[in-house]
Design a protein that fits this description.
The chain is mainly alpha-helical and about 140 residues long. It contains 6 helices and no strands.
Length: about 140
């Protein structure tokens, strides 16, 4: 699970920035990240064995590509004001925490499927690592 720590850091940082249809770019980013997190959790839920991991590879790739796009978009945003950060946190923190909990539960379940499955999943999770660095203010 250690390799997913940078991913969770990205998702948590994005939590303070990102939503489809919102006129506020920071809120739009948070909503988009929540959507991507939900897709990842759903994809993890489809894993039953090493073969299923292989068949889900295109989904992991797609999620990784979207995360890279979001990283680039977030890098272009100015840091939200302290008030805006607090408002975003109040509004979205429960959703983000719920999805993170579900992903952690999925990873525990997957770990129980055996080392071959876990190795295959970790290989796919590498596709989720952002290509570029996050802006310093997002750390």
């Amino acid at each position: 699970m250690k390799r997913s720590t940078p991913l969770l850091a990205l998702l948590t940082a994005a939590f303070f920035l990102t939503a489809c249809g919102s006129s506020d770019p920071h809120e739009a980013a948070v909503e988009e990240i929540i959507d991507v997190m939900s897709k990842l959790e759903s994809t993890l839920g489809e894993i039953t064995d090493a073969e299923s991991v292989s068949s889900l590879s295109p989904k992991f790739e797609s999620i990784g590509e979207r995360l890279n796009e979001l990283t680039k978009q977030m890098a272009e945003l100015e840091k939200p004001s302290e008030e805006k950060e607090k408002a975003l946190e109040e509004k979205y923190k429960p959703q983000v925490e719920a999805i993170q909990t579900k992903m952690e539960e999925q990873m525990k379940r997957i770990k129980g499927l055996g080392p071959d499955v876990m190795v295959a999943v970790m290989k796919e999770m590498e596709k989720l690592e952002p290509e570029g660095d996050m802006p310093e203010w997002m750390d």
